[in-house]
Amino acid sequence: MRIAPSLLAGDLSCMSREAERCQGADFLHLDVMDGHFVPNLTFGAPVIANLANNTDVPLDIHLMVWRPEVLLDDYLAVRPARLAVHWEAVGHMDRVLGRIRDAGVEAGIAINPATAIEALTDSLQQTDFVLFMTVNPGFAGQAFIPHVLAKIQRFKTMLAQASLSVGIGVDGGVGPENIHKISASGADLVVAGSSVFKAAKPAEAILHLRRLAEGAQ
Fold first, then answer.
1. Which residues lie below 8 Å from residue 65, measured CB to CB, with a gap of 6+?
2. CATH code for residues 2-216
3. What is the pTM of this model?
4. Helix H segments across 26-138?
5. Which of the residues are catalytic?
6. pLDDT band with cut points at 50, 70 and 90 for residue 167
């Protein structure tokens, strides 16, 4: 199980220091919010570019914005390892996924808890990973929505029937109390915010989550 701490739950006045506290993380997750697609406003591309210059941990950018294609080049210029856009916010998904991949970045589709997996069917050939939201996006610290795990299991069946290999991430309300269920559902990455940054030692919290996930596997 790969762990991507969400910096939204950390101290945003010193993001580089917070990144340093995440030793052992596979990615640093950055939720970009525009105040329109979700009711919150977070990092712009210059802030993330500054962070990229001050950490060796690969960046995982999650664009929670309407019409991400308008902003896409600014965030691709930061050279993240991965970038996800929301199915609910994109007019021409194949075009956007192609632009992300052409930049040498893994392309992902994020879907909200109420979005059906069938909506993804015709875009999976160009998709490296799907990020399943297990909260309604917009704020850190929300409660986990458990019925999404059944959706992930159905998605795994869909992939097997189509002979496709697509990564599965889970974002929202992840912690020690549910990561074993998330792992058992078939996810290979979790975004963990409060459960990492509210811990006295985030690096130890990351290791603990990974061990719990591996135990479930």
1. 32, 33, 34, 36, 37, 71, 86, 89
2. 3.20.20.70
3. 0.96
4. 45-52, 72-76, 93-102
5. 31, 171
6. very high
